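WARN  no MSA supplied for this record, continuing single-sequence
INFO  ligand: protoporphyrin IX containing FE
INFO  echoing inputs
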Amino acid sequence: MFAYIEQITQTMNPPNQILLIPCTVIFLLWYYLHVPWNLPNLPRIPFYVSIIGLWSSMGQDEIYERWLRKPLESHGAVLIWFAGRWSILVTKPEWLTDMFRNEDLYAKAGSQKKIPWSVIATLVGDNIINAHGENWKLYTAIMKPGLQKKHFDVQPVVRKSRRLVDKLVEEQNLVSADGCDGKGIVANHYVQQWAVDVMGVSFLDLDLQALEKPLNAVRLESIQSVIKGILFRPLFFNFPDLDRFPWLFNSRKFAFRIMNEFGDRLVDAVHDKINTQNYKPPGGDDMVVHMLARARRDGRLTEKQYRDNLKIVFLTAHENAQQLVNSMFWQLGTLPDAQQKLRDEIRFANCNPEALTDLPYLTATIYELLRLYPPVSQLINRITLRDAQLGGKVAIPKGTFVGWNAYGVHVNPAIWGPDAMEFRPERWGSTVNEMHARFRRDTVRGTYIPFNAHSRKCLGQGFVLLQMRVLLAELVGRVKWRVEDGYQLKMTPGGIMAPLGCKVVLEEVNKSA
Ligand code: HEM
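INFO  complex generated
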């Protein structure tokens, strides 16, 4: 194409040559941004909505309300510009189940396939979440027993959760002692330390001790804040082709360097601990890290596959839990009665951590948090391997990217009733059995998808529910909290969904009793 343009230019006189420049720019923009003719006839979300983060700080809930809710609720799917191309975003449950059930047609294709040159692909590589076919089967066979253990050792989670509450109380006391009564603290820094520590002791046989040290003292943990700040920058997220030219952008050179540093440090930390000769894990060698290391030694995994899967365990097993806890601090911080109800249930039951699974209000609270604040709120990471008819209705050509919006499904009044936007744990039923049954039924039907559904559903779901139960029990047992006066809810503009900059004021319950 460029040779053709050059040929035309040579045959033109100078004024026409000058005119050709804007024409070429317009043509190239059109070429890059136009909607392919063969996409189905669905409402199109205006292009500027995808790049709105360049000039506005709107949260993803506000963006959804303003531009996506109406077309999605009336049509079940829309065309949207996502990560450099027009894709199909779906919220109609029947169509979602069709997509989730048929992974051989709607195949996982993460950034390692879509944009392999990009910063995000450098971070995540080819792993158990984004791989397809034989690679996915291989990773699953190796890792699943470590991700879905029948009995996770709950004591390290209890220890870390107690430590988190200690740190929050210490920080609140410092702020209050400074004469700032009524001022709150940002829990997120400590919640990240907790989430990384819990992930380390539960999956990687590594106690990173981030909670034991001052903020930013453990690089593998503090680097996460840098990575999260880089990943969803609207310009590079929406135009990943820019990552082909890191020499043009210093910030991208830095981004590539940080992603590599994270991988190097993680592999070294694991190596120093478990790959040393004669290391015998005290709790047995049934963690996912031991399985990955064995597969690497046996030659079932290449060095890169080993590294990519270590990284994804680190990332996914801490960040989603971290952000769910942030949403929990916000939501329950506005509902003192719900906190008290949890406190009464936990005290009355006077239970050990294992018995927490039997508590109905605790269970319903976590399910309801995942409904209104699904950390993975939207993902477009599947590609049609052949021409498809989604739900027998929407003709989708081969090679189209398709995905889902969990938040949209969960706040649709046609699915969840007129109070869909309200936090109401009671909707889950009155007994734990009833709640589990509803959870399973809605997952299978595609009406409750915080963990996705069917063959590619989350393998950490059981663990994270346990982790949340333990933390909530420790937290409400020792403190009550409220959102600081004047804080206005602002959700992340894209990526993982959670409140931004929420401050909470904590008070120890035994002091206030
Ligand atoms: C609140 C916490 C969590 C949420 C909301 C969550 C959500 C999800 C979602 C939505 C998916 C599907 C992704 C996709 O379709 O591409 C997924 C997959 C997965 N998650 Fe989680 N996750 C959480 C915690 C965890 C934890 C703690 C682990 C443990 C390492 C984990 C491991 C995985 C794995 C291995 C997959 C891939 C499953 C497959 O494709 O076979 N997750 N998760």
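The pocket of protoporphyrin IX containing FE is lined by residues 128-129, 140, 147, 203, 313, 316-317, 320-321, 324, 375-376, 379, 381, 450-452, 456, 458-460, 463-464 (CB under 6 Å).
INFO  checksum written, moving to next record
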